Amino acid sequence: MTKTKIDVTLSKTKKEKPQSDQLEFGRVFTDHMFVMDYSPTKGWHDARIVPYEPISLSPASMVFHYGQTVFEGLKAYRTQDDKVLLFRPEKNMHRLNLSNERLCIPQIDGEFVIEALKQLVSIEKEWIPTAEGTSLYIRPFIIPTEYFLGVAPSNFYRFMIILSPVGSYYKEGIHPVKIFVENHYVRAVDGGTGKAKTGANYASSLKAQEEAAKKGYSQVLWLDGVEKKYIEEVGSMNIFFKISGEVVTPELNGSILEGVTRNSIIELLKSWDIPVSERKISMEEVYETYKKGKLEEVFGTGTAAVISPVGEFLYNEQKMVINDGLTGELSKKLYDTLSGIQRGTMQDPFNWVVDVN
Ligand SMILES: *Cc1c(COP(=O)(O)O)cnc(C)c1O
């Protein structure tokens, strides 16, 4: 794509910013957004930063019918010395293009979008909360905009980036979650769209999530879609098990979403010489190690929480309480280190952090 300048139209009004301690996830949006459009003749064009406002689309827009959508999620952090940092944004752009490829959406120029994102985040700098644990959540997404009811890839698209200040995931400090091991519904199968960040995957997960919530579990653990035997991941997190000193996470098998956090945790563990393997792991194996007292820690990884320790599984009516329902030592160390790198309070030997200024 041609690297046209990004047109900027600043908002005439400024919304009131929420108090740090009242921030929720994804309910409040900043004053501006990034937009660009795609057409077969122009490619991606009209890259612009404009006031945040509703968009107008025909009811026949393809986005309302067949779910050909993709999205990303990352964060910007404001440091004590007032710098603005992004965490591995090139990974998100790479993954967005993998999702695009699977959904028949044209590729975007990741470098260009990162430049646009830096510009947008700089304009919205005052929106980035500074209190402990808070950040600015960044949501890039692409929707099909052609007016057509036929089932086919759209010829026209809109790419947008919206920003939302978010509160600390752990209001009272990092604490373990309870997870329901899903043995009826499935999330994805090999050959499906599991490895793409596409809306449909989340639509089909809602029912299981709702039923688990009724039983008092905050998330579900998905098993493979064929045998319902091997562990895949949690709703929006990858999962890790510490068994007899070794860390195991399911291998990328085509139906698991490759998290940027997952990748970073594996790199961190390797740099600490802690054995870590990516392999098939069944729920039966986890249960057996649990019974033998060898299941030391379990944690999920994802942009929202960074590390989410698991305190309990419900698996075929059996309750498994992990590490007495407490946050494990390794989980805590990984959380402190990774969030320290992301927030610029710890050394970044991997060059993961990108300075926006
Ligand atoms: C986004 C997501 C993750 C976590 O990815 P991160 O890049 O670490 O935030 C894991 N699983 C699913 C299904 C996801 O949508």
UniProtKB/TrEMBL annotation:
GO terms for molecular function: branched-chain-amino-acid transaminase activity. Pfam families: Aminotran_4. The keyword Transferase applies. The keyword Amino-acid biosynthesis applies. Its cofactor is pyridoxal 5'-phosphate. Its EC number is 2.6.1.42. Pathway: Amino-acid biosynthesis; L-isoleucine biosynthesis; L-isoleucine from 2-oxobutanoate: step 4/4; Amino-acid biosynthesis; L-valine biosynthesis; L-valine from pyruvate: step 4/4; Amino-acid biosynthesis; L-leucine biosynthesis; L-leucine from 3-methyl-2-oxobutanoate: step 4/4. Keywords: Amino-acid biosynthesis, Aminotransferase, Branched-chain amino acid biosynthesis, Pyridoxal phosphate, Transferase. PROSITE patterns: AA_TRANSFER_CLASS_4. It catalyses: L-leucine + 2-oxoglutarate = 4-methyl-2-oxopentanoate + L-glutamate; L-isoleucine + 2-oxoglutarate = (S)-3-methyl-2-oxopentanoate + L-glutamate; L-valine + 2-oxoglutarate = 3-methyl-2-oxobutanoate + L-glutamate. Belongs to the class-IV pyridoxal-phosphate-dependent aminotransferase family. PANTHER family: BRANCHED-CHAIN-AMINO-ACID AMINOTRANSFERASE (PTHR11825:SF44), SUBGROUP IIII AMINOTRANSFERASE (PTHR11825). This is Branched-chain-amino-acid aminotransferase. It comes from Metabacillus halosaccharovorans. The lineage of its organism: Bacteria, Bacillati, Bacillota, Bacilli, Bacillales.
